[in-house]
């Protein structure tokens, strides 16, 4: 019975060493040459834009909270809707729109190798545009905050 353990132990050690021997693929995002590289680079771009969106959204929530607090102190503004709640609702709605719209872009290439790339590129572009919108709101440039036509 005690010898039955050895084959499993040898397999576990071999599998661990085999994983360690596989080099990490580092795509050339300056000039991607394959569909895989394009997808990996688009995913990196989306992750970077998403991180920036989260940071700017936190700033926008803070600004909305402060603007609402100041407005509430003025006569006649006590019935004003809560800006933080409104921005939070708008952000959730925007995310649902972005994801649905980008799913449409993926479906344009249904069955093709470009479909996942179209989805990632769409999400990255939309996210970068939303970052610009939120930055304008935080800066108080509401005229610059509307989506570009």
Verbal overview:
This protein is an all-alpha fold and 149 residues long. It has a single domain, classed as Up-down Bundle (Substrate Binding Domain Of Dnak, Chain:A, Domain 2), CATH 1.20.1270.180. Helix content is 74%, strand content 0%. It is built from five helices and no strands. Helix 2 runs antiparallel to helix 3 and helix 3 runs antiparallel to helix 4. The longest helix has 38 residues.
How many domains would you count in the coordinates? 1
Task: Spell out the helices and strands N to C.
Answer: HHHHH
The oligomeric state is single chain
User: Termini distance?
Assistant: 73 Å
DSSP helix count?
5
Helicity, in percent? over 70%
How large a portion of the residues is in β-strands, by DSSP E? under 5%
CATH architecture grouping: Up-down Bundle
Brief rundown of the structure:
This protein is mainly alpha-helical. It contains five helices and no strands.
Give the SSE layout:
Blueprint: H1 5-21, H2 35-72, H3 83-108, H4 115-139, H5 142-145
List keywords for this structure.
single chain, 149 residues, mainly alpha, Substrate Binding Domain Of Dnak, Chain:A, Domain 2, 5 helices
């Amino acid at each position: 019975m005690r010898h039955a353990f050895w084959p499993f132990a040898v397999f576990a050690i071999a599998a661990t060493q085999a994983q360690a021997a596989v080099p990490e693929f580092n795509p050339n995002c300056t000039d991607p040459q394959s569909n895989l590289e394009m997808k990996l680079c688009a995913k990196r771009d989306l992750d970077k834009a998403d991180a920036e969106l989260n940071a700017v959204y936190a700033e926008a929530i803070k600004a909305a909270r402060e603007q609402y607090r100041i407005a509430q102190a003025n006569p006649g503004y006590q019935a004003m809707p809560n800006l933080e709640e409104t921005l939070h609702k708008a952000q959730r709605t925007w995310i649902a729109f972005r994801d649905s719209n980008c799913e449409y872009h993926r479906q344009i290439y249904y069955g093709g190798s470009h479909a996942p790339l179209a989805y990632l590129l769409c999400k990255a572009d939309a996210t970068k545009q939303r970052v610009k919108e939120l930055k304008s709101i935080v800066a108080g440039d509401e005229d610059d905050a509307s989506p570009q036509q």
